[in-house]
Amino acid sequence: MSTTITVIPGDGIGPDIIDATLKILDKAGCDFNYEFADAGLAALEKTGELLPQATLDAIARNKATLKGPLTTPVGEGFTSINVSLRKQFNLYANVRPVKSFKGTKARYEDIDIVTVRENTEGMYSGLGQVVSEDGSEAQAMSKITRAGAERIVRFAYELARREGRKKVTAVHKANILKSTSGLFLKVAREVAAEYPDIQSDEMIVDAVCMKLVMNPEQFDVIVTTNLFGDILSDLCAGLVGGLGMAPGANIGEKSAIFEAVHGSAPDIAGQNLANPTSVILAAIQMLEYLGMQEQAKRILTAVTDVIATGDRTTRDLGGNGGTTDFTQAVIDRL
């Protein structure tokens, strides 16, 4: 029986790269039914809402959602759509793998790092944001719970064990943020003790930034809090060629949303220029989540070969191809 997934094409280049990915999924024999839903500017124009109830219902109805990049209008009082989705569906684990692909312009060749980011708590969640009437002061609150910290650290260790990875590094700032980051580190140590088969490390976030640039090969799985994870996962993407090569999964107990992590790039929308790799890799994460390992492996092999050979790759990968050319090159291999 075929599986139904929710598809949110998104804004800007989103429809182009989502369409490319769906063609690849179909060619790989995934046999999905697609329930399309709107969010972002596309939804705002149609319904007056960035995140319509019909879209929330579709995400809740289906186990997995594939999402293109969305635009939240800046400075107009709108809450981040991505943050809203994470809270609405309690998508507590943000999983951002980066892996070196031969044929890219990346500075490194042997990167294979997964950042596991707590997705619902901490400074990034936007709690307690207040600006004084005269604009002279601003405040925000960071809240970490023992349950939230334990859940994300355990998720990271289970991922490491499942994927045969050897080390988990807990990233913190407990030397200064003794309450919030201190609690996260304390819980991370407790959970680490339950996984003697996996090497455990802990590191202050600023040292991690430096070492990721100097010697990134030392990292395997990174687990950290929301704001630190947001920054570090983008840094890791830079190690393998940029956000166009980095997928993201937002996973909860009942729902999961898989996405391109880059922006909507409205300046090149509809021009057949966008690199669809990020959302293709996100779709591979989705297949693995759904237990479709064979299809995931076939698509990854095809994408890897296209990039390595430079066959019809997009400009950011050093080629002269467009979105449709790149997509067809992957389909030809499938």
UniProtKB/TrEMBL annotation:
UniProt EC number: 1.1.1.41
**GO BP annotations, alphabetical order:** isocitrate metabolic process; tricarboxylic acid cycle
Keyword flag Oxidoreductase: yes
A GO molecular function annotation here is: isocitrate dehydrogenase (NAD+) activity
Could you tell me the keywords of this UniProt record?
Oxidoreductase
The Isopropylmalate dehydrogenase-like domain, residue ranges: 4-330
Q: Looking at its record, which EC class is this enzyme?
A: oxidoreductase
Q: What family is this protein classified in?
A: Belongs to the isocitrate and isopropylmalate dehydrogenases family.
Q: What is the name listed in the Swiss-Prot or TrEMBL entry for this protein? A: Isocitrate dehydrogenase
The organism is: Pseudidiomarina donghaiensis
